[in-house]
Amino acid sequence: MRCVAPNLHSVRPCCQLPRSGRGAVRVVNVLCTAMASDTAAAAVDTTLNPRVASLKPSKTMALTDLATRLKEEGQDIIGLAAGEPDFDTPAPIIEAGVEALRLGYTRYTPNTGTSALRKAICAKLSSENGVKYDPDQVVVSNGAKQCIWQALLAVCSPDDEVIIPAPFWVSYPEMARLAGASPVIVSSSPEEGFKLTPEALQAALTPRSRLLILCTPSNPTGAVYTREELEALAQVVAGHPRLLVLSDEIYEYIVYSPAKHYSFATLPGMYDRTLTVNGFSKAYAMTGWRLGYLAAPRHFAKAAAVIQSQSTSGASSIAQHAAVTALGMGPQGGPLVQEMIRAFEERRDYVTQRLQQMPGVRLAAPQGAFYVMPEVSAFVGPGVEAKGWGPVPDVDALCRYLVEVGNVALVPGDAFGAPTCIRISYAASLDTLAKALDRVAAALAPDNFAGI
Ligand SMILES: Cc1ncc(COP(=O)(O)O)c(C=O)c1O
Question: Can you give the residue ranges of the Aminotransferase class I/classII large domain (predicted)?
Fold first, then answer.
């Protein structure tokens, strides 16, 4: 089935807009508009697009901002809320960025990315992931976030359902809603390793199911699906011809042995159904460069490209030039990236070991990314109180308690569809993590609570 969202059938790339005649954009008399706005100045209609009005702001960003504000006020806060590596971008990539400026790569690039970068992405996807794309199947955007948004907008029609396994990355449900679709959240527990099972997927499917979003390695849980687990999900997907899969592989390189990353598009029958998203933010510590990419069957890549051509156009020319160097640093990012991953692994080991020692904290050991999602239902609920602080009905309150009393900023799991969990990002030095976990352990000492 070749179907994109119906509102996209009428979107044309900007180069094809008619200037006059049938289908031309209506030109409004500017003078009349200006006069009308004078008289209406007193009563501004503040109505927002209802889809926007119902959007929730990102709690990850809110908590990061809170930690920054408290720090600026002089408080000794440790922020473990942000989803970004604490490392600097590797030197060769920085040099390539500087070189891009000196060589004059300062102009617009083609809408979907430079051909040098798209060819390099195709070569990487072929040699590392075992999946073949041509450059015209790749759309380079300002971060993987934009790729996901454009993919959702491209394939979802109003009232389509988007299946999102929880715990999920905060933006998936909000983006689905913004695209006019309905998110369908499918929960999982630490005992299931926080992974979607084929049975749970099957039970969530309806004729309106359009897209399944998979994120492996996962933000926020660090779960990594095995090939067998993905194959079992692919079998269910295969039984539903309308269903597509958005495979968010942005943490691909950050996996800890024996876990391994597999691209969903390589599974039998899944290439034509899969929109693969990846990017440079996490593996190459390039969050600020804003660069990600979508690789998909031509039909869907083209739809995402049209959206981009009418919204942001091509991504930064400088970041794209530097990204070619990043992809040339070697398989799995090369030695400089592998060094960062070894550091993440050491931190993962440390953080999980510390959390496992805390009474009342349950854990599914993460196998990838740089997050851990402890289950803390023992410390929240009706009647639970942190002595001298106040009631702790939910994880939102627990995180406020932890930041105010423990001086550590973490993100409440309800933001990720996991209302009894909290997310800890361990993208921080071992010293910082040790200090933060000492504080968390002290704050969560059972003696500090009543009613648990
Ligand atoms: C799972 C996941 N997907 C996508 C993104 C977006 O990454 P970016 O837009 O920085 O490339 C993030 C960033 O936090 C993420 O955690």
Answer: 76-439
- Predicted local distance difference test score (pLDDT) of residue 186: 97
CATH of region 91-334: 3.40.640.10
- Evaluate: CB of 143 within 6 angstroms of ligand 1: yes
Index of the ligand 1 atom closest to the CA of residue 144: 11
Q: What is the pLDDT of residue 17?
A: 47
Residues of the chain with CATH 3.90.1150.10: 59-88+335-450
Q: Which residue has the higher pLDDT, 425 or 21?
A: 425
User: Which of 101, 119, 172, 83 is closest to 371 using CA atoms?
Assistant: 83
Expressed in angstroms and rounded, the spacing between residue 419 Cα and the centre of ligand 1 is: 21
Q: What is the pTM of this model?
A: 0.91
Superfamily (CATH) of domain 59-88+335-450: Aspartate Aminotransferase, domain 1 (3.90.1150.10)
CA distances from 308 to 153, 191, 345 (A): 11, 41, 36
Ligand 1 pocket check for 316: Cβ under 6 Å:
no
Between the CA of 150 and the centroid of ligand 1 the distance, in Å, is 14
Specify the pLDDT at position 63. Answer: 73
Compute CA 276 distance to the chain's CA centroid, rounded to the nearest angstrom.
Answer: 13
pLDDT at 137: 98
| Pocket residue to mutate for ligand 1, from 64, 275, 281, most atoms within 8 A of Cβ | 281
Task: Please report the pLDDT score of residue 21 as a whole number.
Answer: 44
Q: How far is the CA of 250 from the centre of ligand 1 (A)?
A: 7
**396 Cβ closer than 6 Å to some ligand 1 atom:** no
Average of per-residue pLDDT across 322-329: 98
With a CB cutoff of 8 Å and minimum separation 6, the contacts of 50 are: none
- Alpha carbons 356 and 217: distance in angstroms, whole number: 21
Ligand 1 pocket check for 219: Cβ under 6 Å = yes
Q: Span 74-82, mean pLDDT?
A: 90
**Digit-coded pLDDT (tens) for 138-155:** 999 999 999 999 999 999
